[in-house]
Recover the amino acids of this structure.
């Protein structure tokens, strides 16, 4: 495969960096921004880029495979549900997945949030009722699937009555589900996304994923999920 630079179109002669899609960009071109989804650098004024949130952009490659409408989402959701069921994660009650504006998920401006599970807890009841799953509009199909898998994880934990979980454990379990879904896709992009989740320096998401994964390697997935659901801790 000949690699050509996304900016100058020539094979990179000196240092270059690779986006999560494996596209090369010479480091010599000054970057004014990065794709929020694949981290490709954007050269000043480079065309074909789109807004993602108020402060972030998407590159042409990510935009070309984006899930932009509820109809497109509907085409992907059944397969994500089936693949989660194959991993043993089935929701007792079906939860509706809705696309929302990315800005609505990112009001606090910390990190980048791609999805959210909306729950309702009744006084005195041990179970959180899951009302719906919101996913950012405009994700790549792979980001969309892994984000739905992650949020199905939150919904599943809530339906299992696993409440008051340590945030690191809860997000770690959901990242594990997203990672398991990504692994099943068998594409280079999905593998790269999974690796970047494992390498994520975030003390909640990245550290949680690594802690839960380590527990799974040591005790097996069933023992880990049963300890989290029954005792609220890792074995
Ligand atoms: Zn170049
Ligand atoms: Zn991109
Ligand atoms: Zn989460």
């Amino acid at each position: 495969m000949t690699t050509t630079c996304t900016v100058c179109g020539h094979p990179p002669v000196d240092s270059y960096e690779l986006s999560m899609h494996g596209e090369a960009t010479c480091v010599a071109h000054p970057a004014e921004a990065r794709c929020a989804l694949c981290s490709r650098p954007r050269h000043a004024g480079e065309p074909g880029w789109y807004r993602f949130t108020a402060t972030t952009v998407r590159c042409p490659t990510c935009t070309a495979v984006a899930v932009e409408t509820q109809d497109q989402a509907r085409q992907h959701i059944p397969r994500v549900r089936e693949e989660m069921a194959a991993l043993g994660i089935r929701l007792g009650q079906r939860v509706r997945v809705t696309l929302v504006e990315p800005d609505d998920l990112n009001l606090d401006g910390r990190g980048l949030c791609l999805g959210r599970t909306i729950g309702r807890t009744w006084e005195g009841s041990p179970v959180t009722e899951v009302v719906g799953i919101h996913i950012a509009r405009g994700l790549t199909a792979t980001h969309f699937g892994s984000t739905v898998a992650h949020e199905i994880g939150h919904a599943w934990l809530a339906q299992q009555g696993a409440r008051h979980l340590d945030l690191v454990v809860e997000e770690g379990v959901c990242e594990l589900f997203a990672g398991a879904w990504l692994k099943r896709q068998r594409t280079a992009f999905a593998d790269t996304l999974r690796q970047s989740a494992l390498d994520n320096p975030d003390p909640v998401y990245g550290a949680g994923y690594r802690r839960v994964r380590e527990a799974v390697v040591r005790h097996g997935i069933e023992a880990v999920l049963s300890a989290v659901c029954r005792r609220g801790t890792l074995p």
Observations:
- Residues 141-159 form the longest helix (19 residues).
- Residues 5, 7-8, 10, 12, 26, 29 surround zinc ion (ligand 1) (CB under 6 Å).
